[in-house]
Write a structure and sequence with these properties.
The protein is of the alpha/beta class. It folds into two domains: about 1-75 and about 155-165 and about 185-260, P-loop containing nucleotide triphosphate hydrolases (Rossmann fold, 3-Layer(aba) Sandwich); about 80-155, no CATH class. It has helices spanning about 45-55, 95-105, 110-120, 140-150, 170-185, 195-200, 230-235, 235-250; strands spanning about 5-15, 20-30, 35-40, 60-65, 70, 80, 155-160, 190, 205-210, 215-220. The strands form two sheets. Strands 6-7-8-3-9-10 form a six-stranded mixed sheet, with helices on both faces. Strands 2-1-4-5 form a four-stranded antiparallel sheet. A hairpin with a 2-residue loop joins strand 4 and strand 5. The longest helix has 18 residues, at about 170-185. Adenosine-5'-triphosphate binds near residues 14, 41 and 43.
Length: about 260
């Protein structure tokens, strides 16, 4: 079966003060339809760059990204993007924020409202549907951003440290909610995180990247059944996976020295 997302030999460099800096070096990775993949790695290893390329927000310098076998040439409503900073419109209520993408897509008022309500309910914000973002906590804003991303019915969700700014308890609750939604809707998810526990808890597979240049260092299968539970977090299997991911993130080989031009 054609993978949902295929990174094929993707390389990208940035110009830093006249010097070329390899942010991604020949990254190849297939993500299956309906898979939940988490991406971890040291700061600066190219995680966001990789995601921006998948989102179509950035063109790779070489290589390509295919979605359903077709080359990505720009952003698409088929790929919902969620960033760490809750990108909500401050002047719009939760409901209007969630309806926004549907409105752009030309969906009629009544259907828009119905769809928005369903996803607002899914993230537990029904009581706040008419509230403005400034009256919401960080976790609530991020739930609103998730509802908004889901509402336009993307087949892929690209999430760049979406829970990074949240407290530990809210984070754990949102992880469960996200998994709950994922198991019902089965979208393909690529989820970047710094948190090793989060990476293991959510994923079918954890992609560990290495820095300088950014590349795929290891791919670790998470052989734990869904639904994931509180007890699983405390199981020896979980501890072993966490140890394995942790080790491959923090004890990476020294960066590859680039000697050739
Ligand atoms: N617009 C840009 N201009 C120049 N350099 C950039 C740009 N964006 C990223 N880089 C560089 O590319 C490298 C990879 O950046 P990227 O943001 O993808 O890393 P990351 O893995 O997401 O890091 P973090 O975990 O800190 O978010 C970094 O060294 C960064 O300095
Ligand atoms: Mg980043």
């Amino acid at each position: 079966m054609t993978p949902k997302i295929q990174f094929r030999d993707v390389s990208h460099s940035f110009d830093l003060g006249g010097e070329t800096f390899a942010a991604l070096d020949h990254v190849s990775l297939d993500i299956a339809d309906g898979e939940f993949v988490t991406v971890v790695g040291p700061s600066g290893c190219g995680k966001s760059t990789l995601m921006n390329i998948a989102a179509g927000l950035l063109d790779p310098m070489s290589g390509e990204v295919l979605v359903d076998g077709e080359e990505v040439r720009g952003p698409s409503p088929q790929r919902g993007v969620i960033f760490q900073q809750y990108a909500l419109f401050p002047w719009m209520t939760v409901r209007k924020n969630v309806e926004f993408g549907l409105k752009i897509a030309g969906v009629g008022a009544e259907e828009r409202r119905r769809t928005a309500e369903r996803f607002i309910d899914m993230v537990g914000l029904t009581a706040f549907a008419d509230a403005l973002p400034k009256t919401l906590s960080g976790g609530m804003k991020q739930r609103c951003a998730i509802a908004r991303a889901y509402a336009v019915d993307p087949t892929i969700l690209l999430m760049d440290e979406p829970f990074g700014a949240l407290d530990a308890l809210t984070r754990v609750q949102l992880q469960d909610r996200l998994l709950d939604t994922w198991s019902r809707e089965r979208r393909t998810v690529m989820f970047i995180t710094h948190d090793v526990d989060e990476a293991v808890y959510l994923a079918n597979r954890v992609i560990v990247m290495a820095a300088r240049p950014g590349r795929v260092h290891r791919v670790i299968e998470v052989d734990l059944p869904y639904p994931r539970t509180e007890e699983m977090r405390l199981s020896p299997e979980f501890a072993e996976l966490r140890r394995e991911v942790w080790h491959s993130v923090y004890h990476q080989p020294t960066p590859i020295e680039r000697t050739s031009p």
